[in-house]
Write a structure and sequence with these properties.
Layout lengths: L6 H25 L7 H20 L2 H11 L4 H14 L2 H8 L10 H15 L3 H12 L4 H13 L7 H6 L4 H14 L13 H15 L3 H10 L7 H10 L3 H12 L7 H10 L5 H7 L6 H12 L3 H4 L7 E2 L2 E2 L14 H11 L9 E2 L2 E2 L2 H9 L2 H14 L11 H14 L4
Antiparallel strand pairs: 1-2, 3-4
Helix pairs in contact: 1-2, 1-3, 1-4, 2-3, 3-4, 4-5, 4-6, 6-8, 7-8, 8-10, 10-11, 11-12, 12-13, 13-15, 13-21, 14-15, 15-17, 16-17, 16-19, 20-21
Protein name: TIGR02270 family protein
Length: 423
């Protein structure tokens, strides 16, 4: 049917859908680890992302002609947009076209992990019944890439792949081993084979998380997680916070000293890790850190995460330290945080400290462990991730999918509110 719209205009509109879908996919992925974004933030991103993906889908062949070549750039957002479109069109030849650029990926290249992670994000959008069908179909393929994506599909949807997990744990591709280790940890499944000598830091990180779930807290495992944090930017904040949460006060102090003896760009992890401890005794130390350009934002995050402080409502926000009028800091993971003004925050704490008791652990101003469930329901994403894993250390079952499409999360959260269950 002739719509009366010139072909050049239609093509430009569809191209904008493809570009926006790719941009929003990458933004959403970053937002799942944000120190301030909530499920409401994610829901708004999901709605925008869905709208642009629907625009591509409704464009039919033209949508595919524009989205699929962009995938060849191997940028994570473009990977997500093309693969999600291929699945929603339910045309397997296009799925195969979408996977073609991945055939040339180098497992030793760090960008490979980002591109394959973007594929898993697209697979997370599948309805669960479709995910089971596609995941099992791929697991019956001889091709290593498709087999790996099949394993990732089931694990992302918290589905036990059975004996296939063992094959994934010993797979020659590092990304696949990491997927298998992460899946075992997410589902609380045993993974007996040691990964302590694995050359991939992400594999070792999730092997240690899995060990915590299977064997309980041990100082050695917690310290290994902290030491792996700087090597795994995607999961480093989570690893440090969980690692700190299982240590004695003396070992926490030693871990902080080790971090500060290392690269200054990782000093922020000491404050992120102290959130995992939850002890208000660290709040004066965090206030001292507010003026430091290397970790002042992380200290601001730590104060809010421990106490539930709303810095905007309290009028405690200031700008970052400057040199010649230019900001001095480069704390990209914490850029969404409000920077707390040190003197005003010190005055606030002098008025508030009596509400918190040293040694009585808290999260978002509430006592642990009760705060874990409440934070998972209504907290910011970085804290929700920590709460989900901490709950998983307390009880069996799958870790709550705090990064899943929000429409799906809200159904689970309704159950969580009603029953107090973790999944």
């Amino acid at each position: 049917m002739n719509t009366g719209t010139p072909a050049s205009v239609r093509e430009e509109v569809v191209r904008q859908h493809a570009e926006e879908a790719a941009f929003l996919a990458q933004l959403r992925d970053q937002t799942t680890r944000s120190p301030v974004a909530t499920t409401d933030t994610l829901a708004r991103l999901d709605a925008r992302l869905d709208a642009h993906c629907e625009g591509l889908r409704n464009a039919g062949a033209l949508g595919w002609e524009i989205a699929q070549p962009a995938w060849a750039t191997r940028l994570p957002g473009e990977c997500f947009a093309a693969l999600r479109l291929a699945f929603e069109l339910r045309e397997w030849d296009r799925v195969e076209q979408a996977l073609a650029p991945l055939e040339l990926l180098d497992d030793a290249d760090p960008d490979t992990f980002e591109q394959l992670d973007a594929c898993v994000m697209a697979l997370a959008w599948l309805p669960p019944t479709n995910a089971i069908e596609i995941g099992n179909w791929w697991l019956n393929q001889a091709d290593p890439l498709r087999w790996s994506l099949g394993l990732a599909t089931l694990l992302e949807h918290r589905i036990d792949p059975g004996a296939q997990l063992l094959r994934g744990l010993a797979h020659p591709a590092a990304w696949t081993r990491a997927v298998a280790r992460r899946g075992a940890a997410l589902l609380g499944l045993p993974a007996e084979a040691s990964a302590s000598e694995d050359p991939c830091a992400r594999v070792r990180l999730f092997a240690n998380l899995g060990r915590l779930r299977q064997q309980g807290t041990s100082p050695e495992t917690c310290e290994a997680l902290i030491d792996l944090g700087p090597a795994c930017p995607r999961y480093g904040d989570l690893a440090c916070a969980i690692g700190f949460s299982g240590l004695s006060a003396a070992r926490v102090d030693a871990a902080i000293q080790r971090i500060f003896a290392g690269d200054p760009q990782h000093h922020r992890l000491a404050h992120v890790g102290a959130v995992g401890v939850g002890d208000p005794i660290y709040i004066p130390w965090m206030i001292e850190g507010l003026a430091n350009p290397n970790y002042g934002l992380a200290a601001s995050y730590g104060l809010s995460a421990l106490t539930g402080l709303d810095p905007d409502a309290r009028g405690l926000i200031c700008g970052p330290p400057t040199s010649d009028g230019q900001p001095e800091y480069l704390e990209e993971p914490d850029l969404d945080c409000a920077w707390l003004e040190p003197a005003a925050t010190q005055a606030w704490w002098a008025e508030t400290a009596s509400e918190f008791s040293p040694g009585r652990r808290v999260m978002f101003g509430r006592p642990l462990p009760d705060a874990l469930r409440l934070t998972l329901i209504a907290g910011p994403q970085r804290l929700r991730a920590l709460a989900a894993w901490r709950l998983g250390l307390l009880r069996p079952g799958a870790i709550f999918a705090y990064d899943a499409p929000v429409a799906r999360q809200r159904r689970w959260l309704t159950h969580l509110r009603a029953t107090g269950a973790s999944t």
